[in-house]
Amino acid sequence: MNGPTRTPVAIVGGGPVGLMLALLLDRHGVPCTVFDTAEAPHRTPRGNTHNARTMEHYRRLGIATPIRALGLPGEHPTDIAYFTRYNGHELSRLPLPSRNTRMRRTGRAPATDQTPEPVHRANQMYVERFLAEHVRTRPRITLRLGRTVTGLRQEADRVTLRTEDSAGRVHDVAASYAVGCDGGRSFVRRTLGVHYEGPGSLGQEVLGRRATAAHLRLPTFHRDVMTGTRAWSYWAFNSALAMNLIALNGEDEFFLLTSSADPDRTGPGPLADLVRRAAGTPLPVEVLDHRPWTPG
Ligand SMILES: Cc1cc2nc3c(=O)[nH]c(=O)nc-3n(C[C@H](O)[C@H](O)[C@H](O)COP(=O)(O)OP(=O)(O)OC[C@H]3O[C@@H](n4cnc5c(N)ncnc54)[C@H](O)[C@@H]3O)c2cc1C
């Protein structure tokens, strides 16, 4: 039987944290191997905002410009707008600049201004796909998708990881360091006996407890329903429902976050009806994906 494969650093989890760690190690000349259960980068929407500090990290790695090109078109405003229904009364609007306006302002700002890389709205699914592609171009980084870490053993001079591929074959890997980047329910964290403290959720009615997140295609929303100034985040509030629709690509893809559906029982039909009720008008709704989600 062959001995374990060796790697200086084993990164468990190839989400944004694991991929960024791999790129930062690479920048310092340290080879690593990233393991992720998923066979491909995630294709469902999650986090939407890359704050200035995150953009600065991308800049240090030379990838801020291509990441800033992801998500909404350059002139799409990033407003947050509140409605009773989407075809009804606009309650309020927080005007926020488009990507191009923001970058023009940053370009004109004095050199002592806080950051050359202001906040950027682009969904995590687009950025994760980009990061995974970029990681593949770096010879020091090995990306092992479809590989679940199922065991960790600490020894005097190494950590031995037991990994399992999608066909159930077991591969042992020896590393000088193993890093847990495997998300909120982290296997590494639990194996080390590290527990969370504090309350689990706020328990609030609107997106403050277990809710529903869905990826939608709404091909006519911007053309027929939201005919005024565009926004990034469209909230609908009335006595019957509350939801947030986030524009993903400025065209037909949207991210729905709502507490007005039972996260464990809802499905494409009820979610499409909910969106039509929020719109106040019939419109085509394709539910690409939906799942329960507890806002953090
Ligand atoms: C619906 C939704 C909306 C969200 N909205 C926001 C938002 O607006 N703003 C915000 O800041 N955050 C948001 N988040 C949270 C954000 O997505 C997470 O904070 C972020 O993904 C954490 O990144 P991570 O790399 O630590 O973990 P993850 O993205 O969870 O990645 C962990 C990776 O580890 C892999 N993995 C797990 N166990 C193993 C194992 N044993 N072996 C190998 N691989 C393993 C998983 O497949 C996964 O790819 C949202 C999340 C969801 C679900």
Description:
The chain has 296 residues and is α/β, with parallel strands linked by helices. It has a domain at 5-43 and 126-191: 3-Layer(bba) Sandwich (FAD/NAD(P)-binding domain), CATH 3.50.50. The chain has 8 helices and 15 strands. The chain has helices at 16-27, 52-60, 64-68, 99-108, 124-136, 187-191, 221-225, 268-279; strands at 5-12, 32-36, 49-50, 80-83, 90-94, 120-121, 141-145, 147-154, 159-165, 170-180, 211-217, 233-237, 242-247, 253-258, 286-293. It has a 7-stranded mixed sheet, covered by helices on one side. Strands 7-2-1-10-9-8 form a 6-stranded mixed sheet. Strands 3-6 form a two-stranded antiparallel ribbon. Strand 1, helix 1 and strand 2 (32-36) form a beta-alpha-beta unit. Helix 1 runs parallel beside helix 5. The model has no long low-confidence stretch (mean pLDDT 95). The protein binds flavin-adenine dinucleotide (FAD).
